[in-house]
Design brief:
Elements: H1 4-15, E1 44-50, H2 54-68, E2 71-77, H3 82-91, E3 99-103, H4 107-112, H5 120-125, H6 127-130, H7 137-144, E4 145-146, E5 149-150, E6 153-156, E7 160-165, H8 166-171, H9 180-194, H10 210-223, E8 229-230, E9 234-235, H11 240-253, H12 265-273, E10 279-283, H13 286-290, E11 302-305, E12 325-329, H14 336-347, H15 349-355, H16 367-370, H17 373-378, H18 382-391, H19 402-417, H20 423-439
Parallel strand pairs: 1-2, 1-3
Antiparallel strand pairs: 3-12, 4-5, 6-12, 7-10, 7-11, 8-9
Helix pairs in contact: 1-14, 10-11, 10-19, 19-20
Length: about 450
């Protein structure tokens, strides 16, 4: 176990190593900075990451080695396996992982399992360097805070925006959707006119994966003022707003790339980048990929807007914090000193900006990145949509039971999409099972 005194001692050590990414010059001017011994030469840090983040993780590891001398070993798993792998490691006789990347929804589960080091005091000690006030407010607490303590730092600020193909919209005299009614009309128009050519109006992601299908549902639920869970009253998955959101999703699916239950992140991405769909609600890094000639057939033929506004008195533009990843130190890290140094390094403002200037699957977590000229130049069409989305983003529940709850909701959503149950029946069943788990 790494006690409070130990973590503060480590923070003190790191304070002598990092000064906003710049080491002090050597005393003897005839030697270059590289001739001085690097602070963690011969050390290793092992980091749990996922496949979509591998490129950014590898580059981050290279930068960290250049500055500190430590070697980074990335353990890559599917994102649905990350939490299981972290829990297995802390329970093993010989833990291997120093740093966990994890889906922010799993924060409560990991804290309850004593898997993460409490870094509250480290963040406060390093406030001038880390600038926590610069983290995007809508995600900072959601990604790091549990039971009034901070256990991690934000890494990838995932939310959805709506991408569309300009030439298809122009051909059918459509405007970028402002409302979900506009979205349905565009999906229907394009599919009915283009399906014989293998082109569909939209791609809706609804595979049996909570991170994916619940993201699609949350995009619609938040826009009509709904939520999955209210801390005061409990589950709200069968609210009138939820039924409206699921009903709309089912109707829209009629005009989507066949079939939504087989459309995951990769299928949706590839369909849009190859020009086979008119719209996708996707994570923001798709905008970077769309301009990359090695990945895309639609360079300069795409646009992006914030998620559509819902109808009714509570209708609004409301992107959900779909996916989104944090970095935390394992409570049983083999090398806690190097682990802390890696966490601080990865979270520095200059490093987070560098991560957002590569095609590495990373979305902004800092306000300074959103408005930095380099980022605006790197993603000129994308940046305004991300800025707008992050102003009103809503977080998912981070209860220790969150995974079980979301798996139940996933099953019920699929039953409704497949026509086995009505939206009301499916969500009533989810509500009942959520209450049983939370009250049991």
């Amino acid at each position: 176990m790494i006690g409070l005194a130990g973590i503060l001692a480590i923070a003190g050590l790191a304070a002598g190593i990092f000064h906003l990414g710049k080491r002090e010059a050597p005393v003897d001017p005839q030697f270059s900075a590289r001739s001085a011994p690097l602070p963690f030469s011969g050390r290793k840090v092992t980091v749990l990451t996922n496949k979509p983040h591998l490129r950014s993780a590898e580059m981050l590891g290279d930068w960290f080695r250049e500055e500190t001398g430590a070697v980074v070993r990335n353990v890559v798993v599917n994102y649905e396996d990350m939490t299981r792998r972290a829990l297995e490691d802390i329970s093993s006789a010989s833990p291997k992982l120093d740093v966990f990347m994890f889906w922010y929804v799993d924060l409560g589960l990991l804290v309850q399992a004593s898997a993460l080091v409490d870094v509250t005091d480290v963040i406060e000690q390093r406030r001038a360097e880390l600038r926590p006030e610069d983290f995007i407010p809508s995600l900072y607490d959601a990604f790091t805070l549990y039971q009034d303590r901070r256990w991690a730092l934000p890494y990838d600020g995932d939310t959805h925006v709506l991408f569309y193909r300009k030439s298809l919209f122009a051909r059918h005299r459509l405007s970028p959707p402002e409302t979900w009614e506009d979205y349905l009309n565009a999906a229907r128009t394009i599919t009915e006119q283009e399906k014989t050519r293998g082109i569909y109006g939209t791609a809706i992601m609804a595979p049996r994966n909570p991170m994916i299908i619940v993201s699609s549902f949350m995009n619609r639920l938040g826009s009509v003022g709904g939520t999955l869970y209210d801390p005061r009253t409990g589950p709200a998955v069968n609210s009138p707003e939820a039924v409206r959101a699921l009903t709309a999703m089912i109707e829209q699916s009629r005009y989507a790339l066949p079939t939504p239950m087989e459309t995951d992140w990769e299928v949706s991405r590839d369909a849009f980048l190859s020009g086979r769909v008119g719209m996708v609600e996707q994570w923001t890094d798709i905008g970077v990929m769309a301009q990359d000639a090695s990945q895309s057939l639609i360079q300069n033929d795409w646009g992006v807007v914030r998620m559509p506004r819902g109808s009714g008195d509570q209708g609004r533009h409301c992107a959900a914090l779909n996916a989104g990843f944090s970095l935390g130190i394992s409570e049983r890290a083999p090398d806690p000193e190097t682990a802390l140094s890696y966490l601080l390094f990865a979270s520095r403002p200059d490093i987070t900006l560098r991560l957002n200037l590569i095609n590495g699957g990373i979305d902004p977590v800092r306000l300074s990145v959103l408005y930095d000229k380099a980022y605006l130049d790197f993603a000129p069409e994308l940046a305004p949509a991300v800025q707008s989305a992050m102003q009103n983003a809503s977080a998912w529940p981070r209860l220790p039971q969150a995974i079980r709850l979301l798996e139940i909701l996933t099953d019920c959503l699929i039953r409704a999409l497949e026509g086995q149950m009505s939206p009301q029946e499916a969500l009533d069943q989810a509500q009942s099972r959520w209450r049983q788990i939370l009250e049991g």
